[in-house]
Amino acid sequence: MSFFTGTIYSFSLNMDTAVGVILPQDSRKHRGIEELHAGITPRETSKTLILLHGLSDNYSVWLNRTSILRYAEDYDIAVLMPEVQRSFYQDMKYGPAYFTYITEELPQLAAELFHISITPQDLMIAGLSMGGYGALYAALTYPERFYGVGCFSSAFDLRSFVEDDEIATRKELQGWNNDRKGIFGEPPVCPQSRDLFDLALKNAKKSKTPRLFMTCGTEDFLYQSNIAMRDLLSANSYDLCYEEWSGIHEWGFWDLSIQKMLSFFLP
Hints:
There is one protein chain. The chain is an alpha/beta fold. It has one domain (about 1-265): Alpha/Beta hydrolase fold, catalytic domain (Rossmann fold). Helices cover about 35% and strands about 20% of the residues. The chain has helices spanning about 60-65, 70-75, 100-115, 130-140, 160-165, 175-185, 195-205, 225-235, 250-265; strands at about 1-10, 15-25, 45-50, 75-80, 125-130, 150, 210-215, 240-245. An eight-stranded mixed beta sheet has the order 1-2-4-3-5-6-7-8, sandwiched between helices. Helix 4 (about 130-140) packs parallel to helix 7. The radius of gyration is 18 Å and the shape is globular. The two termini are about 20 Å apart. The model has no long low-confidence stretch (mean pLDDT about 95).
């Protein structure tokens, strides 16, 4: 099993940017020395998961805080872990175009450099908190590009993060008042096109939408917005699997969530 960290030059961002990449082709399980997860058949070109970090994290956090390396080996998938700073996966008003990078440039670069599959039947995207927003934002904007989307303890209610001054009093959001001005301008206003609740309603009329897997802890401070999104998606006939259990906004919950997601999307 190979894991690489390094930098790539992004035209979307106009700079070098960090990325972590897991590749399964040389693993013991891929080569038949150990068994893969039940039902998984090794492929010459791997299925791919784009895995997104949260607001107070960076690209390395999934590797450091979960066993994603082991899960990728079990399921024989490649994993891309990009860096987006505290951008909320937006093309910023006064900063880099992170959404364009994540959805347009990164998949193409990864396919060229690492020979992994980014075809719609092979590409998943998932994330936690801010990354859960980013994953659903990407999938609702380009529903034809992904077959699976995972959202864990997600910050779905972007409008409150952008327009509510009180939310920045949380310790992990120190400095957010300045960040949001760089992303959305001043005064910071969430455009309707970035509101996931509006996007979900519009996309419900489309013939193709990806499968969705959502989790949230019942004691999580984002629980109510996750329930609101669950109910909206369910009412509009999205292909949604939602799971909740006792938990807060922490890595033990997300480590279990990524296992459940992979088990759900992969045989």
